[in-house]
Specification:
Blueprint: H1 12-16, H2 19-25, H3 30-47, H4 57-69, E1 77-78, E2 82-84, H5 95-105, E3 113-114, E4 119-120, H6 128-135, E5 139-143, H7 146-158, E6 162-166, E7 172-174, E8 177-178, H8 179-184, E9 189-193, H9 201-207, E10 212-218, H10 234-244, E11 248-253, H11 271-276, E12 281-285, E13 296-300, H12 302-310, H13 313-316, H14 321-333, H15 337-343, H16 345-351, H17 354-369, E14 376-385, E15 394-401, H18 406-414, E16 420-421, E17 423-425, E18 428-432, H19 441-451
Parallel strand pairs: 1-16, 2-14, 6-9, 6-10, 10-11, 11-12
Antiparallel strand pairs: 3-4, 5-13, 7-8, 12-13, 14-15, 15-18, 17-18
């Protein structure tokens, strides 16, 4: 029989009576199941000229319903070797941060209530004292990310006025977002000084006019310039800014709270170093090297922070109770640096020894062997990610999986219930252990077993 077989497609009501679909109706809302049935029929109508008689409609509908019920935002296993992977959510939270979020989310809180006075309080006070203690700043506040912190600061001090910045610091920060574009949205007029590779203190001095609202210093945390280069540090700019009566805004970026040079990570200033440099305001991220939730942290002079709090934009850029609770719990760990390195996942992963990774890899290889799967241990180089320590290469260890089609194995790893994101090198799939949390290793083993033929 010839002709357009699409005319023979079953009706929605017919498919709803299938045993497999009737079972689904006991597990999910009828409207959702019906919509899934319609979508499966529509796919057949638009994509198939010949619809086979042996189509397993129940299986198709079951699979489509499972897809529709799977959350869009899901946990994944980071086996890329990039620890603070922006696309994978950057820093995992410490256990104490997760506990703090649960405690605050499960009931009511004093988010904007002063328990001592019994009157309305301010969410901007949460974390402020702790940030001042850890950084040496006069005051602090938290907004929803570092870009928001820069916009709020510029809008407060330089709306309709000039903001002086080196051309070498007009960087792109990922996702095609660029610092000059973000700064322009604040209402400030950008005044670019120097050249891409060389900027001198006198370039800033000559650019200052009565219309100058701020000098901006952006830490180049996600790339490095080498060769015939010159730049002016925030600390070197601070005396000029102070003498001119112009606030210096320092976008410090990484949020590093501890010196990691003992683990071979050098060249990145700490938050206390940045504050000590003399900027009026220092801005940083909460979810990079600090190891907390996404947040924009602003520390600096009390009068400046107070002006930021009174800016109407502060309400639009404020954070919620979950972010504040997670950030506060993370910051508290820094009172005991050794504990912070041990319990903040980002720091624990970055400071793990190659020997400890080898031991983990050997246990995984043995576990895979017991399942009939052969793997190898290879030396690799991991990176920090998150726009921090851009030139650092950290010795690491990976599991290497060999198969006829590495791309197929890599894809099947991503199809696991908890997707595993690795990389392909020299025809093998590499799963770098530095970014894999130890308690996810059982899930990793299951994903590997599922992915290999």
């Amino acid at each position: 029989m010839t002709g357009d077989r699409r005319r023979a497609l079953p009706a929605v009501g017919t498919l709803l009576e299938l045993d497999a679909v009737r079972t689904l109706l006991t597990q999910a809302p009828r409207d959702l199941v019906t919509d899934v049935v319609r979508s499966v029929i529509d796919d057949a109508r638009h994509r198939l000229v010949d619809t086979p008689d042996n189509v397993d409609w129940g299986q198709l509908i079951t699979e489509r319903l499972a897809q529709r019920r799977t959350p869009s935002l899901r946990p994944v296993i980071n086996a890329t070797g990039v620890v603070l992977h922006t696309n994978l959510g950057r820093a995992p939270l410490a256990r104490v941060a997760l506990d703090a979020m649960r405690d605050v989310a499960s009931g009511f809180s004093n988010l904007e209530y002063d328990i001592d006075s019994g009157e309305r309080g301010s969410r901007h006070r949460h974390c402020a004292d702790l940030l001042c203690e850890l950084t040496g700043a006069d005051d602090a506040m938290v907004v929803n990310n570092c870009a928001a912190a820069l916009v709020l600061a510029l809008n407060t001090v330089s709306d309709g006025r000039d903001a002086v910045i080196s051309r070498g610091e007009l960087v792109e920060i990922g996702g095609s977002f660029r610092v000059p574009d973000i700064m322009s949205k604040s209402g400030a007029r950008l005044v670019e000084v120097g050249t891409t590779n060389r900027t001198h203190l006198d370039d800033y001095r000559r650019a200052l006019t009565p219309e100058t609202g701020a000098i901006v210093s952006v830490h180049r945390s996600n790339f490095a310039l080498e060769g015939f280069v010159a730049s002016v540090s925030a600390a070197a700019l601070a005396p000029l800014a102070h003498a001119s009566g112009v606030p210096l805004l320092h976008d410090f970026g990484s949020g590093l709270m501890l010196d990691l040079s003992a683990w071979g990570l050098t060249g990145e200033p700490t938050a206390r170093d940045a504050v000590r440099g003399g900027a009026a305001l220092v801005m940083m991220s909460g979810d990079k090297l600090l190891g907390g939730p996404q947040a924009g942290i602003i520390v600096g002079r009390a009068a400046m922070i107070d002006a930021l709090r009174r800016n109407p934009l502060a309400r639009a850029l404020r954070v919620d109770k979950l972010t504040l609770s997670a950030l506060e719990a993370t910051l508290m760990l820094y009172r005991e640096p050794e504990r912070a390195v041990r319990e903040i996942p980002a720091l624990a992963m970055l400071t793990a020894t190659a020997g400890s990774l080898v031991a983990r890899a050997e246990e995984l290889v043995t576990a895979l062997q017991s399942r009939g799967i052969t793997s190898a241990i290879v030396e690799t180089e991991a990176s920090v990610g998150g726009g921090a320590f851009p030139t650092a290469r950290i010795p690491s260890i990976a599991l290497a999986l060999s198969a006829a089609s590495a791309s197929r194995v890599e894809a099947r790893l991503r199809e696991a219930p908890v997707p595993v994101v690795g990389r392909i090198a020299n025809g093998r799939v590499l799963l770098d252990l530095r970014g894999i949390l130890p308690d996810t290793e059982p899930l990793l083993l299951s994903a590997i077993e599922r992915a290999l033929p």
